[in-house]
C-alpha cells in the first residue's frame, strides 16, 4: 500500500492533487455519490453531522473517498431505504464496526423499527379511511358545497 493511500485510510491531513488521488483509486464526491447511490449534498450532510467520518482532501480542498468510505455510504443508504432514522443508523454503524457485538442487539433494534413502521402504517391506514369516507360524502359536481372542505375547516361534516 502506498504512503498516499495509507494516509487517506488513517484520515490524516495529507494534501495532494485530484489526479493523483484518482490514480490511487480514490473518488471525488461526485464519483462517490454515483458509486454509493447517495447524493453529494447528503454525503456532505452526513459528514457534517458526524455520521460519516471526515475524509481526506486534495490540495484544493476537494473531498476524496476510498472504498471503505463508499462502503459506509452504501450502508447508510440501505439503512435509510429501510426507514431507519439517523440516530438508529448511528447505532447500527456502531454495531457494524464492533466485531464483539451481540446479534441480539441488532435484532432488537430491527424489531423496534418494525413496530414503529407498523404503527405508522396503521396511522396512515386510518387517515386513508377517513379521507375515503369524506370523499364518498362529496358529490364531486359543479356545486360549491363540499363536505371535505367543511370537515377540514370544522371537523363536523360526514362523521
Layout of SSEs?
Elements: H1 3-9, H2 18-23, E1 27-28, H3 29-36, H4 40-48, E2 56-57, E3 63-65, H5 67-81, H6 86-97, H7 103-137, H8 147-154
Antiparallel strand pairs: 1-3, 2-3
Helix pairs in contact: 3-5
Structural overview:
With 159 residues, the chain is mainly alpha-helical. It folds into two domains: 3-101, Multidrug-efflux Transporter Regulator, Chain: A, Domain 2 (Orthogonal Bundle), CATH 1.10.1660.10; 105-154. It has eight helices and three strands, in the order ααβααββαααα. The chain has helices at 3-9, 18-23, 29-36, 40-48, 67-81, 86-97, 103-137, 147-154; strands at residues 27-28, 56-57, 63-65. It has a three-stranded antiparallel sheet. α3 crosses α5 (67-81). The longest helix is centred in the C-terminal third of the chain and has 35 residues, at 103-137. The protein is elongated. The N and C termini lie far apart (71 Å).
Count of DSSP-assigned helices: 8
Work out the count of structural domains. Answer: 2
Q: Helicity range of the residues?
A: 55-70%
Would you state the CATH class of the largest domain?
Answer: Mainly Alpha
> What's the count of strands?
3
Spatial gap, N to C terminus: 71 Å
Descriptive tags:
single chain, 159 residues, mainly alpha, Multidrug-efflux Transporter Regulator, Chain: A, Domain 2
What is the gist of this entry?
This protein is mainly alpha-helical and 159 residues long.
Amino acid at each position: 500500500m502506498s504512503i498516499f493511500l495509507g494516509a487517506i485510510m488513517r484520515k490524516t491531513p495529507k494534501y495532494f492533487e485530484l489526479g493523483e488521488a484518482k490514480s490511487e483509486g480514490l473518488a471525488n464526491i461526485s464519483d462517490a455519490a454515483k458509486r454509493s447511490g447517495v447524493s453529494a449534498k447528503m454525503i456532505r450532510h452526513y459528514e457534517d453531522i458526524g455520521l460519516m467520518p471526515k475524509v481526506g482532501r486534495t490540495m484544493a480542498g476537494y473531498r476524496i473517498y476510498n472504498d471503505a468510505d463508499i462502503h459506509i455510504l452504501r450502508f447508510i443508504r440501505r439503512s435509510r431505504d429501510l426507514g431507519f432514522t439517523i440516530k438508529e443508523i448511528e447505532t447500527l454503524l456502531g454495531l457494524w464496526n464492533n466485531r464483539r457485538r451481540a446479534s441480539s442487539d441488532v435484532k432488537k433494534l430491527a424489531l423496534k423499527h418494525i413496530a414503529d413502521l407498523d404503527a405508522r402504517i396503521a396511522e396512515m391506514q386510518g387517515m386513508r379511511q377517513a379521507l375515503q369516507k369524506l370523499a364518498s360524502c362529496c358529490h364531486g359536481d359543479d356545486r360549491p358545497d363540499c363536505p371535505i372542505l367543511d370537515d377540514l375547516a370544522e371537523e363536523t361534516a360526514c362523521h
